[in-house]
Specification:
Elements: E1 2-3, E2 19-23, E3 28-31, E4 37-41, E5 46-47, E6 52-57, E7 62-67, E8 71-74, E9 80-84, E10 88-91, E11 94-97, E12 109-113, E13 119-120, E14 133-136, E15 148-151, H1 166-172, E16 179-184, E17 187-190, E18 193-195, E19 200-204, E20 215-219, E21 235-237, E22 243-245, E23 255-256, E24 267-269, H2 280-292
Length: 298
Amino acid sequence: MKKLAAVLCGACLAGAVSAQTLYPANGATEAAYDAQLVLTFDAEPELVSGSFVTIYDANGAVIDKIAFTDDEQVFADGTKVAVGSQLVRKEGKAVYIQPHYGKIAPSATYSVEVPAAAIKAEGFGGVAKGAWSFSTKAAPATVSDGATLTVNNSMDAANNAQFHSIQAALDFVKDSEGTYTIVLAPATYYELLHYNGKANIILQGRKGNKRGDDTVITYINCNDMNNGQATRVVFLFTRPTRAKCTFLPKRWQAETHKQKPCSSTKAKVTRSMCTTAHSRACRTPCKSAANAGSTTAT
């Protein structure tokens, strides 16, 4: 991440600007194309409902407009899911911005605009068009049956995983056949997942951690937000794909062939990765999540 100075607001003094860091850094040349954008402030900011973040390509054309409220996420197969205010969210002093899937491409240059009125924070004068720009790295090399893909959403410069997001890894093999293992670094992944490709997918947490409690996928979705079997879940694996949960207690392991999702107000899937499945093993934690906000198992 890189320190902000007067790039945020020409009229603001560097010491008065409360936003201190940008991710990716302004001017970054090897940014992850599937990472969330992050502004970190000195103090906890306030998001203003009805605001937007705009992303431009190298020619200055708008390629994405992300709403603070009442937005939707669109998957590669065209499925649209209402996500409310989750594409721009606040966690402590940080504001996380999730571009719509597929809008940020590999090997391209972008700039981000955040209006001054969108975020209330002392000294924040907004991010003007052109003041926050970066170039993305190339896509990973093509893989074949049996390959392992790595995912790590850390903002650390030493992060050398192929992907920042699980969904990007799933999309990468959506047209492939065979079996692919997606290894997730210990972290909390704030993602809505959807996969209807042909491959067999294994989502795998850290080896040796049988409980999987250091690798978490969390998102808020429910029937009130999306009234439909295919859209009201956090985790959706469809078609003939076989999705396998690994590093779970034996009675929690499940393999799925067809989707039969369960709904939850907030699915915080611990104990490694548990897909939405028609098996009791995965239906039970989703029901638990609907009541408690997180899943547990012993």
